[in-house]
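A reminder from the course coordinator: this example appears on the midterm review sheet, so study it carefully.

Given structure:
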């Protein structure tokens, strides 16, 4: 950032600016148009007339800033030095609980364009997770036959080394089939999940619950060598990897790989 005061010279460092003021007597009052030959004379003037301007302090060090727009200057300083106490989005002027929450915000549709296409209908999404949700929920108009189970079968074929899929030793309905609900789930007051006994106000809500992955068998695992997380859907795996919480892959790598995983014919690689 540049600092410009009495004359037309620009400075990239406050110490250089102060040296220049000493050499040329350019000590300006912080609130009026007067300037002085020494800092002592300037300070005496500001003290007698209460012309001290408001100071904006960095939250974690002793730097203080004055400028034509001091709030912006100190915000830029903290952004450049990663010195915010919290985790702050400058564009939205929002603070987040932790670094991961800020990362997820910056990678949401608020900041990222929808550039990742569905391999079938070409609808675009912001992240690989969005593409996977779209397909696993049979929402693609050009691939209505696709589902969580169908996608898993295709991914497993391209993953013979089980880098992201869990080897299946049985073909139980829980592993690959949709769970059915009926009027028999009504307990007199609510539609009840027979697996966890949660109650729902409608059959549709119960159906969404039992087929959301909550009770599905885990069929994917994180490829990270130190991570033991397992997932019931490809979307859940992508969401985990995009968070970079275990450091297995970078967010950008997941986005580049999604087309090969859900729509390609190449074998899945470890890198």
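Designed residues:
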């Amino acid at each position: 950032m540049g600092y410009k005061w009495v004359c037309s010279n620009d400075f990239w460092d406050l110490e250089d600016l102060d040296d220049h003021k000493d050499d040329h007597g350019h000590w300006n009052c912080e609130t009026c148009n007067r300037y002085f030959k020494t800092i002592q004379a300037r300070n005496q003037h500001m003290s007698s007339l209460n012309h001290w301007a408001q100071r904006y302090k960095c939250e974690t060090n002793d730097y203080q800033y004055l400028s034509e727009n001091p709030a912006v200057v100190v915000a830029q300083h903290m952004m450049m030095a990663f010195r915010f106490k919290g985790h702050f989005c400058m564009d939205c002027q929002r603070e987040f609980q932790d670094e991961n929450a800020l990362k997820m915000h910056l990678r949401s549709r608020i900041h990222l364009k929808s550039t990742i296409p569905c391999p079938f209908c070409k609808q675009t999404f912001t992240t690989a997770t969005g593409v996977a949700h779209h397909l696993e929920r049979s929402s693609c108009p050009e691939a209505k036959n696709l589902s969580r189970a169908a996608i898993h079968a295709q991914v497993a074929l391209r993953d013979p080394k089980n880098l992201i899929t869990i080897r299946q030793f049985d073909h139980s309905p829980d592993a690959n089939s949709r769970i059915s609900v009926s009027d028999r789930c009504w307990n007199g007051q609510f539609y009840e999940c027979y697996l966890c006994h949660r109650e729902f106000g409608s059959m549709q809500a119960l159906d969404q619950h039992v087929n959301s992955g909550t009770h599905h068998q885990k069929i994917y695992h994180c490829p990270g060598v130190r991570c033991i997380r397992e997932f019931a859907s490809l979307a859940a795996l992508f969401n985990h990897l995009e968070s970079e919480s275990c450091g297995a892959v970078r967010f950008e790598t997941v986005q580049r790989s999604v087309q090969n995983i859900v729509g390609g014919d190449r074998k899945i690689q470890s890198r």
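Residues 119-263 form one domain. The chain has two domains: 1-53, 119-263.
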